[in-house]
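[audit] Reproducing an earlier prediction to check determinism. Same input, same settings, fresh worker. If the tokens differ from the archived copy the diff job will pick it up downstream; this log only records the rerun itself.
[audit] input (383 residues):
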Amino acid sequence: MNTLSLILKEIAHRKWNALLALLAITAAVALYVGFAMLGAAAERETVILMRDLGYNLRIIPRETDETAFYERGYAVDTIPQEYVRRFAGKQGISYRHLRASLKERIRIGDADVLLVGVTTEVHPAGAKERPMAQAYDVPPGHVVAGFHAARRLGLEDGATVEIAGASFVVDRCLLESGTEEDVTLYGNLDDVQRILGKEGRINEIQALECLCVNPKVDTLDKLRAELIAIMPEAKVIKMRDIAEARQRQRFTTQSHLAVTLDAAIVGCGLWIAVLALLNVRERRCEIGILRALGYGSARIAALFLGKAALLGALGACIGFAAGTLLSLRVGPGIFQVTAQAIVPMYGLLAQAVVVAPVFAAACSVAPTALAVTQDPAHVLRDA
């Protein structure tokens, strides 16, 4: 009788042991697939949510006095608007979501507001990303009003406001944010440059750092070195609270998923090993008879490892299906922002079919070694 026939007969004879082993392998694969799919979703969700905390880099003219900059909230000095395009031709840099702006405080009626002209975002070469939540694209002739600016000027959606003798339509009024945004009027950069008499000039470029490394590592020196190579006329200020919050959250998410998955896989591996050991103990007499009939250690080892590998292949297919279905069912409810991106990862099926049999066999090595080293004379004598 060949080895495969013996394995199938043993599985049929000891159904519960085989079923429990199959369940352990299925659980391990399902956990791996589920964690991979939901982990990818969690990372995507974290990236978007942390991204929408806001820009964390401010690029201003090099000659700007930082004390005056912090007092006013903007730079008095300006640089040519075309400078921001230098980033568009660069690859492999740590800046994303670059948005040029021109800021200055002005008086409208009896209210002092911060007038900010903005453009659409610029991305480095090869980087195509959705605009940030704060990237207000304001068409010419329109403005977006911050909460307190709108209240003081009596503005509402669709209303008009006169600025420096020109009328502008209020696209929308923003909700209260508790930041400088509340007293800001956002306009199209060309309009604001014309109002302030600074055509073709900007005084700030906001950006997002994409160096998502260990939060204990300071990346400011790298950012400054990159900026000098691209735009020596400017300097970068890093808003550490926002930058470090993004880094800490992403680092924590990745670490938590890795530790949890490792613990689950180890638990399933121990489960398989214990079941294999119990299987060896139950088959002591059978092993003794096989040894007495001339079956060598390699043949007996093949029975145990072959059974583990066969159950591993079957468990891989069932586990992939179970993990995928579970992720597709619960994932969209957890990760609502990126729900549409949760899709089956068929590459994991090929990995599971290869890895699961090896994993199951590896967990059965110690019990198998115990089986092949038993002396058949002692076993049959004690039977």
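[audit] rerun output stored. Observation attached for the diff report: Residues 105 and 323 are 56 Å apart (CA to CA).
[audit] end
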